[in-house]
């Protein structure tokens, strides 16, 4: 079996603990992965690098096209751009995919949710264009730019994914009633593309109404596709419906590269204590397995995690237990057989 190279970014804070947990699980599955570890962000600066995205890290990602990533802290102060944003732009990881799936045994408001948020990942308000503050500090501005091609590829990605996964409906979340240029273009393109997918139901909802409906009747949603800023907010809202960011994985997909990550922060308050919940990055590893055509391994991994949480067997403090990250991982590995 030929080895599949994977660039591993353990990150900082709780990142190394939870990524090491995911690697242990992957190794038990005999996935054939071969790991190349690189450092970025604050960890890179602490190691003496002059950039938050060292050339060695970029070269590894270009070579492997596959990344498993823990939470990364962007250094404070001017001149340091978000590492996540920089990676998405550099490798054109235009589609951010955030599955939200209820997990038995968690303290969540809803028990049977299965929603996927698809977010345009490179343009809009997070593109970093036109940001400036006046010399007197009394005026700040930023530029939001989206293009027809960006809209087309993210909306088509959402419909194609829905079709491939047997989903029933795609909802376009927008603010075209106010943001008539940018959101208006997104909605116009969405309506055009939806006509090509007569096997999939399509609806539209203004983003603030979408947030309200997700809280009141989330079961009415299936796949949501939206622009960068709205997608960031709605995907976190969806995670909150099932128990929080610690249970939610994320994927960033481009034409030649894909990055799979824990979507929560580095949690410096519990860093080094060995009690972090590794579920988010383990489930991100399951998304990576699907991406490289190992669906059975992905399903085995998800079943193992769900069993541990449902049976409350060696779960971490955030899930109401007192186990360490290592003991939680042991429980997952035992269920893999």
UniProtKB/TrEMBL annotation:
Q: Which NCBIfam families did the record assign?
A: PRK08997.1
| Entry protein name | Isocitrate dehydrogenase NAD-dependent protein
**Protein family (similarity comment):** Belongs to the isocitrate and isopropylmalate dehydrogenases family.
**Which SUPFAM superfamilies does the protein's record reference?**
Isocitrate/Isopropylmalate dehydrogenase-like
Which EC number(s) are documented for this chain?
Answer: 1.1.1.41
Q: Which GO terms describe its biological process?
A: isocitrate metabolic process; tricarboxylic acid cycle
- Which Gene Ontology terms cover its molecular function? isocitrate dehydrogenase (NAD+) activity; magnesium ion binding; NAD binding
Q: Which organism is it from?
A: Salinisphaera shabanensis E1L3A
The reply to whether Transport figures as a keyword in the UniProt entry is no
Where on the tree of life does the source sit, at the highest rank?
Bacteria
Q: Which UniProt keywords apply?
A: Oxidoreductase
Q: Which residues form the Isopropylmalate dehydrogenase-like domain?
A: 5-332
Protein's UniProt keywords contain Oxidoreductase: yes
């Amino acid at each position: 079996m030929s080895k599949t190279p994977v660039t591993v970014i353990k990150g900082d804070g709780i990142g190394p603990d939870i990524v090491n947990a995911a690697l242990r699980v992957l190794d038990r599955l005999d996935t054939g992965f071969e790991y190349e570890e690189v450092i970025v962000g604050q960890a890179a600066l602490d190691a003496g690098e002059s950039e938050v995205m060292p050339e060695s890290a970029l070269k590894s990602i270009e070579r492997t096209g596959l990344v498993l990533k823990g939470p990364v802290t962007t250094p404070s102060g001017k001149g340091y751009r978000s590492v996540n944003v920089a990676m998405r732009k550099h490798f054109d990881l235009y589609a951010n995919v955030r599955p939200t799936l209820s997990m038995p045994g968690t303290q969540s408001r809803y028990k049977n949710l299965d929603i996927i948020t698809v977010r345009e990942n490179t343009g809009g308000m997070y593109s970093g264009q036109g940001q400036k503050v006046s010399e007197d500090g009394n005026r700040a501005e930023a530029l939001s730019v989206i293009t027809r091609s960006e809209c087309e590829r993210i909306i088509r990605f959402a419909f194609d994914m829905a079709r491939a996964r047997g989903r029933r409906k795609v909802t376009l979340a927008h603010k075209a009633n106010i943001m008539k240029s940018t959101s208006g273009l997104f909605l116009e393109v969405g309506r055009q593309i939806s006509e090509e997918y007569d096997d999939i139901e399509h609806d539209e909802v203004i983003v603030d109404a979408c947030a309200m409906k997700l809280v009141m009747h989330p079961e009415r949603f299936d796949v949501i596709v939206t622009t960068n800023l709205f997608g960031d907010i709605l995907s976190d809202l969806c995670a909150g419906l099932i128990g929080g960011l610690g249970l939610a994985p994320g994927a960033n997909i481009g034409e030649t590269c894909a990055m799979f990550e824990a979507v929560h922060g580095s949690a410096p308050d519990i860093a080094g204590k060995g009690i972090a919940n590794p579920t988010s990055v383990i489930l991100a590893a399951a998304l990576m397995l699907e991406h490289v055509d190992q669906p059975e391994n992905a399903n085995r991994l998800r079943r193992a995690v769900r069993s541990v949480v449902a049976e409350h067997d060696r779960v971490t403090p955030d899930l109401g237990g007192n186990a360490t990250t290592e003991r939680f991982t042991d429980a997952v590995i035992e269920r893999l057989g």
